[in-house]
Structures are given as structure tokens and as C-alpha cells.
Specification:
The complex is a heterodimer. Chain A contains two helices and seven strands. Chain A has helices at residues 3-26, 33-38; strands at 30-31, 44-50, 57-59, 64-71, 76-81, 94-102, 105-114. The N and C termini of chain A lie far apart (80 Å). Chain B is built from 22 helices and 23 strands. In chain B, strands 5, 6, 7, 8, 9 and 10 form a six-stranded antiparallel β-sheet that branches. In chain B, strands 14, 15, 16, 17, 18 and 19 form a six-stranded antiparallel β-sheet that branches. In chain B, helix 1 runs antiparallel to helix 6 (116-137) and helix 10 runs antiparallel to helix 22. The longest helix of chain B is centred in the last third of the chain and has 38 residues, at 799-836. Chain B is globular. Classes of the chains: A alpha+beta, B alpha+beta. Chains A and B meet through helix 1, strand 1, strand 6 and strand 7 of A and helix 3, helix 14, helix 16, strand 10 and strand 23 of B.
Chain lengths: 131, 849
């Protein structure tokens, strides 16, 4: 075997292991609020929908946007987001909050808003005006 | 009816592309020109049909035929013409159509400009990918199985169960649901076409690589493929730039790049394309990269297909801000991906042993070895990004239900790759133009190393960079700018047409500097908020329940005309806002004045915009969308948006009132109603009206000479108005009279104007029994106005440098395309001459390097 080939194989091996290790460290699982409460990570992801029936709004005093979210297991919790309400929030068919759970309140540092495509659920479509 | 024509046009185009594919295959096998003529005929038929279908779709959009599902979903009456074009490719089906249309032009180019050796097999593979793309929009049904989603079905066909079609099958909605407001931006109109042009061109090196494997002509394919690959990369770069710029100036996340899967989807093909270009360039002089150039050409298009799969199959789901929802194309897209992958890698493996290998290893200090390493690094960088993007699929190896990786994952890996690319690009450039050994090379590199060190240290000290990784990254970028710059200087004197490589390297390195600099973005805050944030970071703030607060505040509130000092430098004043309705109904603009207390800049006013959008999903809900304002500077931008305001809250209240009255809120009505209100007041009494104190002092008798003709009775009311905050006051005496004519009695109450304020007052009625009168103010509001806005401002250093680097990179690509194109033309000419001069081979012209 040529030395350069051996060197190449070793470096590919090291590169791949390092990459996969680092990759596995940088991803986490989507959880529900109850699992989030048990997690010690400050970057847990919870998927859910906005609970439009409960109060929500931006407070000028605390500079926070607060709303209730129901996760996929059906738990509803208050979520605090230290920024303005994200664009398309009301339209979102799904919200992903990233942050940590403290005392039954979820402190979200990042929020992803998944908007409905214009293509699904055609039957529920509302027409703006009927002729 | 007309939609049906479009539908059949696509279906027939699908069939013709299959036929063209078959005949190009036969041509490639037997070389008969009669077969090639038939194949070309079907190609043109396919192209014409696609033109027809696209024309029909454009026609339907421009004539607002909302009975069609696609038109209803992507367009609306209020769209300007230019956005109707954008509506054409704003949905999945239309964007596939556009991609297919561009691919047709690329096919024509290949037929026109490619020599006989490769033409038929290349066309075969191009058309094969066309067959797959067309199958996505074919809309052909076989029983319960349907192939592709056509843009032409009607609403009624698409949702037969909708109640409205049960009662009225001929129902046509009066208006479409419209193009998303965020997409109504000039940048986003040109972004998709350029992206799809890039995708179409990226199929060319892929097809050439396949053809070379098939026909066992492993060497010559790179010459015709190179300009196409460069062109594809130029297009992708331009598209990525437009997308990034759009995100920066339109969305409120405040950056140009977020490692979102959709963004990565266009970046990875670009990086693989770059790896391929470098491999192709080495291949001309050494067989070290023979395998790599074929492999990268295949991988670049595979990355295009893979990205298409990720973004359009719905598999990314919650991982991305803006992935498409599955249109039922999942299986088709997966098949496309699997066929591309297995055919590509399979054929590559099948021919692997035959592929030429270098006779001896390239020495370490050789342009071949260094460039090969460079292209391997590019490949690895693309691979890492692809791994991260694939986390919803590949993350399952580690955790259940995987999330996308944190952005740090990408940043941490790209940093060393960037450094290596910066360093090797210089050394490889030195070796590219001149032969060096270890000693002479070191001597030649002394100057750039010294210059880079001085520049780096100066920057590190001045900018206060305190992280070793950033220092190394900066060194790598500077070294690339300086080293490549020195070579470029030398080349310019020789022949300006050959500087493409150095220019692209400089552009890339300048981008790297921009990336590094833009990591120092910071919110613009006043001292109070900064102190609060510092306390939060120190863990000193607790909330009501005693838990430590760990979220900092990046906003400040500004009250009208009350300046705050931001960043210890800018005196920022909210000067007011208004409803302008310039581009969208209900659009509001705010005027925020910045005064530089250090006196380096003239005072300027920034005008961020906020506009309401009716939510599609939730009838009646209005959401407010921000349109940030960016003030670009050479070294630093100021980025500003309004996160909330009293004006927005008032509009919301107004809408709530309206919907309580039973009417649906309508954003077109917003802002039309002026500040007006009625008050009722008794003689001698005082009431508070907003910021004003209003006193009805007394009635004043009006002599009949002052009354209008036919008046029965008339009276004036003496009204004293005081603006409490300012102390301004004024007394006016509006008149009320009753006039009698043939039609009966009319009231006459002309408004009187105030001198102090831009407002009027009307005396509307009087009740003689209680001595109570009714007044109407116009221009003075009844609610005490606390006029405030929340602003999120950010310093964005070096974003302009990123753009500058991008432009230089584009320029470099363009130079290279021209050179490689000319190169290929020359080569073809020489080949022909060589064939004519066959008996005297020693005189055959040598190809230029």
C-alpha cells in the first residue's frame, strides 16, 4: 500500500467520525412539553399549534410576546418569546419553539413558523367573495 | 376549455420527450443522422408544446380566470402585471414548468454547439432528466394512480366536495387568494428564473459525464462541459445572492443566510459545481482528477435533484421555514432521485477500472495536487452541508424525531474549510502560472505572507478580535486576497482575459471577510436596556416567581419626539407615522430620525413599513407584517423595523369594533376614516376630549342679517378649546341654523376652522330643552394619544462586503466563461484542421492552455 493512500484512508476515517459525532451532538429530538420540563438542555424543540382561544399578545413592559401553545400530546403551556410576534404567526399551521421549560412556562429563544401551503386542505378553503 | 388544451399540451410534451429520448438513444448507438433528425423533431415538438402550455398559463393568469385552481391560488385582482409573471412560477407546478422551459433552451444550445462525438448521448441524458421533470406536471391519470400534478385543473375538479360546488357547479370565485405579500418584491421576481436556469444548465456537465462513461471518451468532454458548468454556477450564485438579499431586506430575521434547508438546497449544487470545475481544469493536464471530474459532475446534478426532493416532497416538514407541502409527488421525486443516483454512481462504478489513473503520483508541491485537494475540500464542505440538511432523514441514526442541527454546526465546519480554501487557492495559483520547487515557492510566498500578517494583526488589534479561530480565518481570507491580488496584477500585464481564476478567488475571500465581519452584528439599544441585558447575563434578574430571567431584550420603545441615545452614538427620534397605502392597502410608514452625535454622518430618516395582511387560514384575522428598512453603508448597515406601535393598535381596535358591528374587517377600508368624533355638551359645562379641554361657554345670538336665506332660526355656540399638554387655546363660534325650502327643513352647520390646529369644528344640533348641543371635531382625536413605536434596530457590519465579494465572484465567473468558451471554439477549429491535415500529424496545432 502506498503511504499516501493509507494517510488518505486514516484522514477520511477521522473526518467521518468527527463529523458524525459533531452532527449527532448538534441535533436533538422534537419533544412535548412534559418531556421538555424534564430536559436539562436549553435548546429543546417543541412542536405544536397556537392555542387561539387563550390570551396572547405582546407586552410593552416586558417586551415579550406571550401565547399558549398546544403540543402534539395535547398539553397546553404558556410560551414566552422575547421578540415581536413573528410574521405569519396567525397563519401558521404549526409552530416550533426552541428554548427551555421553567416552572410550566416555556421560554423560547427561537421560533419557527410553518405556514400552510396554499395547496392543501382545499375543501376548507374559504372564498373571499361569492358571486 | 383552454385549460384543457394546456393540460393536453403538457401530456403530449411528455410523450414527445420520451420519443425524443428513444431516438437520441438510437442515434447514440448507431450514429445514423436520420434517427437524429427524428429525435430533434420530437425535441422541437416538445419545446413548442411546453411553450404553448406556459403561454396558456400566463394567459389564464393575466385574464384572472379564477376558476382554475392554480390561478386562484397564486393570483388576485390587485396584483400588478409584473407580479402576475411571478405568480406563474410561484407555485410548484408552474415552477416545474419554468424549469422545463429553460431546459429546452439548454437542449437547443447543446444541439447547436456540441460536436458529433457527444451530442446524441448527451442529449439522451438531458432528455431523460426532462422526462422525469415533465412527469411531475404531466397530470396523467391511470385509474387511481395519477402521474404528476398539472397546473390546469379547475377548482371544481380539485375540490369536488366543497359545499359551494354542490350547490352551484359553475361557481367562479370573484377574486383569487393572491400571491403572498412577502413575495411581492422585485428581487423575488427574478430569483426563481435565474435559479431554474442554473438548475437546467447544471444538467449539462452531468449529461456529459454520463456520455463520457457510456462512450468511453473520458477526456474531451470537459472542454464543452466547462463553460456550461461555469454558467450554471454563475446562475446559482446570482440566484443565491438574490435570495439572500431578499431575505435580508424583506424578512425580519435580520440576516442574509440562516442555513435553512431551502437555502442549502441551492448552495450545495453550487459547491459541487465548483469542485467539478476545479477537477475539470486539472484534468486537462493530469489524469489525477479524471475520476473526480466525472464524479463531481454527477454529484452536482444529484445535489440539484436531491434538493428538489427535500424541498418539494414535504419531507422537511417542520425543519424549514418555507418548504413546500407534498403535492402527491413524493414517490415520483424519490424515483427521480434514486434513478439519478443509482444510474450515475452505478455507471461510474461499472467503468471505474477503465478510467485512466495517473502514471505516477503528483508531487505535493504541484498545481495538480493542490487543486485536487482544493476541489476535495469543496466536495467535503458540500457534503457536510448536505448532511446537516438531511437531518430529518439521517438524524434518525442518532435520535428519534430529529431536529435540524444548530447553526453552529455549519459555521464550525465551514470555518476551517474556508481557511484551507483561502490558503490553497493562493499556492495553487502561484504553481498554476509558473514552476516552483519548495525553495523557490517559499521565497515567492514571503511577500504575501508578510503583507497578510501585517494586515491581519492590524485588523485583530483594531477590531478587537479575541478568538483564535476567527484570527486564523481572517488570516486565510486576507492571504487569499493579497496572494491572488498579486498574481492578478502580474496577469493583467500579460493578458487580462486570463484573470478569471484569480478574480473569483479574490471575490470569494472578500466574501469570507464579509461573513466574519457580519458575525459582529449587534442590536442598537439605549443605555437602560443595555444595563438590563447585562444584568440578565449576570443572572441578577428574576421574574415574579423568582426564576432567573435569561432572555435579553433587543427592542426599545420610542415615544413621539422623545429621542433616545442608541449605542451611545445615535440620537434616535420617532417623528411620526402615517398610513400611505402606497403598495398595499393599510400600509403604514414610520419616520425615525437618526442624528449622529459624533458628527460623522449627516442626520438621516429611516422609513420602516408595517402592513396588514388578511390571514388565509383564519377568516377575519389580520396579521401585521413588517418590512424592514436597511440603510447600507460601506462597512456597516443599519437595519431597522417596527415591531409594534400605537398606530397598529388603533387600527386593530378599529377593526375589532367593525367586526363587532357584524361587518368583516376589510383592510381596504383601513385608514380611510379620518379622526372625527361627536361630543355632546351642556351650556356652561366642560368636558375632556382626548388631550383637549372643551368648554361650551354660551349661546350667541345671530342677527338675521348674518343668517342664510330662508332661515327659520339660527344660533352660534361659543366654544373654548384648550390643548392641555401644550397650553395652546382658542375660542371658536360655530353656527347652527335651520333652513326651510320646498323639500322641508334642513339643518345648516358649516364647519369652522381652528387657527392653532389643523382641525375643524361643527355645531350639529341643539336640544333647546336641556340646552345640550352636539359638536363634531374633525382632525382632533378623542383618545389621548400616546404615540409610540417599538423599534428593533441592528448594526450589521460588513454586509456590503459580502455583496461586494459576491459581485467580484460573479465578474470572475463571467471572465472565465468567455475564456473557456473561446477556448472550446478554438479547440474545435483545431480538431477540424487536424482531421484535414491527418497525413502530417506532427503539424497538428497544440491546444492552448
Amino acid at each position: 500500500m502506498k503511504p499516501r493512500l493509507i494517510l488518505g484512508i486514516i484522514s477520511i476515517f477521522i473526518f467521518t467520525s468527527l463529523l458524525m459525532f459533531n452532527f449527532s451532538q448538534n441535533i436533538s429530538s422534537y419533544v412535548d412539553f412534559e418531556q421538555a420540563a424534564l430536559s436539562s438542555s436549553s435548546r429543546v424543540h417543541v412542536v405544536g399549534v397556537w392555542d387561539a382561544d387563550k390570551p396572547s399578545g405582546f407586552s410593552n413592559e416586558t417586551m415579550q410576546f406571550t401565547f399558549y401553545m398546544t403540543d402534539e400530546a395535547g398539553n397546553s403551556r404558556r410560551v414566552v418569546y422575547p421578540k415581536a410576534k413573528p410574521t405569519n404567526f396567525e397563519q401558521a399551521e404549526q409552530v416550533v419553539v426552541i428554548g427551555e421549560m421553567k416552572n410550566d412556562v416555556f421560554y423560547s429563544n427561537e421560533m419557527l413558523v410553518k405556514c400552510p401551503s396554499k395547496y392543501n386542505d382545499g375543501d376548507e378553503l374559504e372564498f373571499t367573495q361569492a358571486e | 376549455m383552454i385549460g384543457l388544451i394546456g393540460h393536453y399540451a403538457i401530456a403530449l410534451a411528455f410523450l414527445s420527450s420520451i420519443l425524443a429520448c428513444i431516438f437520441y438513444f438510437r442515434t447514440a448507438q448507431n450514429g445514423r443522422s436520420s434517427d437524429e433528425h427524428i429525435a430533434y423533431f420530437f425535441l422541437v415538438v416538445k419545446g413548442s408544446l411546453i411553450f404553448l402550455a406556459s403561454g396558456i398559463l400566463v394567459y389564464l393568469l393575466f385574464t384572472n380566470q379564477f376558476q382554475y385552481f392554480y390561478v386562484y391560488n397564486t393570483s388576485s385582482l390587485d396584483l400588478q402585471n409584473v407580479y402576475l409573471w411571478a405568480a406563474f412560477y410561484s407555485g410548484q407546478e408552474g415552477s416545474f414548468l419554468l424549469w422545463i422551459l429553460f431546459s429546452f433552451f439548454v437542449c437547443l444550445g447543446i444541439v447547436r454547439w456540441t460536436g458529433e462525438d457527444y451530442r446524441a448521448p448527451v442529449m439522451f441524458f438531458l432528455l431523460l432528466s426532462q422526462v422525469f421533470l415533465l412527469s411531475m406536471v404531466a397530470g396523467i391519470e391511470f385509474g387511481s394512480f395519477s402521474l404528476g400534478a398539472s397546473p390546469f385543473p379547475t377548482l371544481a375538479a380539485e375540490m369536488p366536495n366543497a359545499p359551494v360546488f354542490q350547490t352551484n357547479p359553475d361557481f367562479v370565485p370573484a377574486d383569487g387568494s393572491g400571491l403572498n405579500d412577502l413575495l411581492r418584491s422585485p428581487w423575488i421576481i427574478i430569483h426563481p428564473p435565474i435559479l431554474f436556469l442554473g438548475f437546467s444548465m447544471m444538467a449539462v456537465p452531468f449529461a456529459f459525464a454520463f456520455a463520457s462513461l457510456w462512450k468511453r471518451k473520458y477526456n474531451e468532454w470537459i472542454y464543452p462541459a466547462l463553460p456550461w458548468t461555469l454558467g450554471a454556477n454563475l446562475c446559482l450564485l446570482t440566484a443565491i445572492f438574490l435570495g439572500g438579499y431578499w431575505a435580508y431586506v424583506t424578512l425580519s430575521f435580520g440576516g442574509y443566510w440562516a442555513w435553512d434547508p431551502v437555502e442549502n438546497a441551492s448552495l450545495v449544487p453550487w459547491i459541487f459545481g465548483m469542485a467539478g470545475i476545479h477537477a475539470m481544469l486539472i484534468q486537462r493536464s493530469s489524469s489525477i482528477a479524471q475520476k473526480a471530474s466525472i464524479l463531481f459532475a454527477i454529484l452536482a446534478y444529484m445535489a440539484v435533484v436531491y434538493s428538489t426532493f427535500l424541498t418539494r416532497s414535504g419531507i422537511l416538514g417542520e425543519a424549514s421555514f418555507h418548504s413546500f407541502v407534498d403535492l402527491g409527488l413524493y414517490n415520483q421525486l424519490l424515483l427521480f432521485l434514486l434513478v439519478t443516483t443509482f444510474a450515475g454512481l452505478g455507471l461510474f462504478a461499472y467503468r471505474y477500472r477503465e478510467l485512466p489513473s495517473p502514471d505516477k503520483e503528483a508531487p505535493f508541491i504541484s498545481r495538480e495536487f493542490l487543486m485536487f485537494s482544493g476541489s476535495m475540500i469543496l466536495f467535503l464542505a458540500g457534503f457536510v452541508i448536505m448532511l446537516g440538511t438531511s437531518s430529518p432523514v439521517l438524524g434518525r441514526l442518532f435520535v428519534a424525531n430529529p431536529t435540524p442541527p444548530a447553526q453552529e454546526f455549519y459555521n464550525a465546519w465551514m470555518l476551517p474549510f474556508g481557511v484551507i480554501i483561502g490558503l490553497t487557492s493562493v499556492v495553487a495559483q502561484y504553481l498554476w502560472w509558473k514552476k516552483y520547487n519548495a525553495e523557490t515557492l517559499s521565497a515567492a510566498l514571503i511577500t504575501p505572507v508578510l503583507a497578510t500578517s501585517v494586515a491581519s494583526i492590524a485588523t485583530i488589534v483594531i477590531a478587537g478580535i479575541d478568538h483564535i479561530a476567527y484570527m486564523i480565518f481572517l488570516f486565510g481570507a486576507y492571504f487569499s486576497v493579497i496572494g491572488n491580488g498579486m498574481i492578478m496584477g502580474r496577469l493583467l500585464r500579460r493578458n487580462p482575459r486570463i484573470i478569471g481564476g484569480t478574480v473569483t478567488h479574490i471575490g470569494f475571500a472578500i466574501m469570507m471577510i464579509g461573513f466574519l465581519g457580519s458575525a459582529w452584528d449587534s442590536p442598537m439599544l439605549d443605555q437602560e436596556t443595555r444595563d438590563y441585558n447585562a444584568a440578565v447575563r449576570a443572572g441578577e434578574i428574576t421574574d415574579d416567581e423568582g426564576f432567573p430571567v435569561n432572555q435579553t431584550i433587543d427592542y426599545i420603545e420610542l415615544e413621539l419626539n422623545e429621542p433616545k441615545l442608541l449605542d451611545g452614538r445615535y440620537l434616535v427620534t420617532y417623528k411620526g407615522g402615517e398610513i400611505i397605502e402606497e403598495n398595499r392597502p393599510g400600509e403604514q410608514v414610520y419616520y425615525v430620525e437618526f442624528k449622529d452625535t459624533e458628527g460623522n454622518e449627516e442626520p438621516f430618516v429611516m422609513e420602516p413599513v408595517v402592513y396588514p395582511m388578511l390571514a388565509n387560514s383564519n377568516t377575519g384575522a389580520v396579521e401585521w407584517t413588517v418590512d424592514p428598512e436597511v440603510r447600507s453603508g460601506w462597512l456597516s448597515d443599519i437595519y431597522l423595523y417596527v415591531a409594534g406601535s400605537s398606530m397598529v393598535e388603533q387600527e386593530m381596535e378599529k377593526m375589532e369594533k367593525e367586526s363587532a358591528r357584524g361587518g368583516l374587517p376589510s383592510i381596504t377600508d383601513m385608514g380611510d376614516t379620518e379622526d372625527e368624533d361627536h361630543i355632546e355638551i351642556k351650556r356652561g359645562s366642560q368636558i375632556t376630549y382626548g388631550d383637549y379641554e372643551v368648554e361650551f361657554e354660551d349661546f350667541i345670538h345671530v342677527p338675521s342679517s348674518e343668517l342664510p336665506d330662508n332661515s327659520i332660526i339660527g344660533v352660534r355656540a361659543q366654544i373654548h378649546v384648550e390643548h392641555k399638554p401644550s397650553g395652546e387655546q382658542e375660542t371658536v363660534s360655530p353656527m347652527f341654523a335651520i333652513i326651510e325650502d320646498e323639500d322641508g327643513q334642513l339643518s345648516y352647520s358649516p364647519p369652522v376652522s381652528f387657527v392653532e390646529w389643523d382641525a375643524t369644528l361643527q355645531f350639529l344640533s341643539v336640544d333647546p330643552a336641556t340646552e345640550q348641543i352636539e359638536l363634531r371635531f374633525d382632525g382632533i382625536t378623542g383618545t389621548p394619544m400616546r404615540d409610540w413605536i417599538l423599534i428593533a434596530g441592528e448594526r450589521k457590519p460588513f454586509v456590503s462586503v459580502v455583496w461586494l465579494g459576491t459581485f467580484i465572484l460573479m465578474f470572475g465567473f463571467s471572465i472565465s466563461i468567455i475564456r473557456r468558451w473561446a477556448n472550446q471554439k478554438n479547440r474545435e477549429k483545431n480538431e477540424k484542421r487536424k482531421k484535414q491535415d491527418e497525413p502530417k500529424p506532427e503539424q497538428a496545432a497544440k491546444e492552448p492552455v
